[in-house]
Amino acid sequence: MDWNPEAILDGQFALGELSLTIAAAALPTVAAWLRDDAELRFDLLADITCVDHFPADPRFAVVYQLYSTSRHHWLRLKVRTNADQAVPSLTPVWPSANWCEREVFDLFGVQFAGHPFLRRIMMPDNWEGHPMRKDYPVEGYR
Questions:
Q1: Of 49, 64, 106, 136, which residue is most buried, by most CB within 10 angstroms?
Q2: How far apart are CA 136 and CA 139, in angstroms?
Q3: Nearest to residue 52, comparing CAs of 128, 142, 140, 131?
């Protein structure tokens, strides 16, 4: 695979950790490259979480924590999105993304395109809204 430098929108190195903001459309390709490149070998998707930047646009940052078990390096990937824009699922790259993406969907409402079974995982199926959003009512909907 050829590297596409336009896939990286921003980068920061702080407190000994590298964070890269990636274009959503390039996420699966970048993830597969980071996993498969012999120099990098980020073979473990440790976690996926989300940050609600309400009222900013784009509102959400989906955050991926990657680890190379052979190189002992951490890397953080971020994808910025809104509630009406799906982020490509990484379940084809790391099957462990399945449950983490479901959790982000359930609590924040972020959609993951191509996810094999995207449905609530923590809240009841009939729950209204997404409780980790900043605009979610503290006492819930009545």
A1: 64
A2: 9
A3: 131
All domains in the chain, ordered by first residue: 5-113 (3.30.460.80)
DSSP string, 54-89: TTSSS-EEEEEEEEETTTTEEEEEEEEE-TTSPEEP
CA 57 to chain centre: 17
Q: What is the DSSP string of 116-135?
A: TT---SSS-TT--S-TTSTT
CA 10 distance to own-chain centroid: 15
| pTM value surpassing 0.70 | yes
CA-atom Rg of the chain in angstroms:
16
Mean pLDDT of the chain: 94
